[in-house]
Amino acid sequence: MAGNCVEVAFNKPKVELHVHLDGTIRPETILDVAKKRGMALPTDSAEDLARLCMLCKPATLTEFLCKFHHFMHVIAGDREAIKRVAYEFVETKAKEGVLYVEVRYSPHLLANTEVDPIPWSQKEGDLTPDEVVDLVNRGLRAGENTFRIKARSILCCMRHMPNWSMEVVELCKKYRHSGVVAIDLAGDESLNCEAHPGHRKAFEEAVRSGVHRTVHAGEVGPASVVKEAVEVLKAERIGHGYRTLEDRTLYEQLLKKNMHFEVCPMSSKLTGACDPDFTKHPLIRFKEDKANYSLNTDDPLIFNTTLDVDYSITQKYMNFTEKEFKRLNINAAKSSFLPEKEKKDLLNRLFDAYGMKKPALKGGTENSRDIQLIMSTHSE
Ligand SMILES: [Zn+2]
Hints:
Structural class: alpha/beta
Bound molecules: zinc ion
Number of strands: 8
Radius of gyration: 20 Å
Oligomer: single chain
Largest sheet: 8 strands, parallel
Protein name: Adenosine deaminase
Helix content: 40-55%
EC number: 3.5.4.4
Distance between the termini: 19 Å
Strand content: 5-15%
Strand order of the largest sheet: 1-2-3-4-5-6-7-8
Shape: globular
Subcellular location: Cell junction; Cell membrane; Cytoplasmic vesicle lumen; Lysosome
Number of helices: 17
Membrane topology: Peripheral membrane protein
């Protein structure tokens, strides 16, 4: 413990790859924006609003989604608010010791025109999904300049809105040089891509145009959703992926491919995705098998968490050590959607911070076996 600081599980630079911008908004900001826009909220206390937005015990998907109705209508459609939320997000992550973060959101869910249907019962305005992306990019960039960490974004397709997906991939292409690094598919996993070809077409276009891909799969849905994500949507990373373990062949294939799993411990408990007993969490199996995964907050506003809470859970209930924290963060950096040169820089910064010798880089980033070799000789 240092000075007045609370002891944290892993007090070294971290990489976070799975966090939703609209699930990280500060209650104070929601109140502030509502006041400016003359919108009534059920409370004017940040604490009460936070309590309203948070899940305290394992819930259903419907209960989880309900939480967003408390505040999304306040932020959506407001240019200044969207930029501010992105800026404040970077500040929060810098405070949590994150060196590099990929934050995701649906541009359509923050727009109020050229989106069908207009979300959150908003009146039609003049903020398009395209401009939303530009605003988030600007907010993130301003945050990067002030707080000296790197933030990139991932644009989400929503499973129940296949008609938005083509535009999402076009926005990924348009803004690929201004901070957008990938496409994602989020939402209700019971809606597969066979019944909703809009997503498949968008992801095919992503492959064609070199846009990176991650997919929420195997969180609540069965292993077949993971299989579809990998085989049909050509996902390079899996959001959650816990239920991959139910299909042994698939799991072994993904281990062999070094597929990255974006694991969110607290989220997986409160959404009811996993057994609430953390000592039975699928992550333990991932760890034993030296799988490629990261630790992430997902929606810290809804789960009332910080990144440290997720690290602490794994330390307390799953015997995670400093060595494992280093290994998983290096794997997260390697599985990030940064261009190769920036990825190498990020890895070098982690090696420095972790007191590990830099591997001789030959061409691309080194493979996980090299990393394991380095880990075994350089970290205690
Ligand atoms: Zn998520």
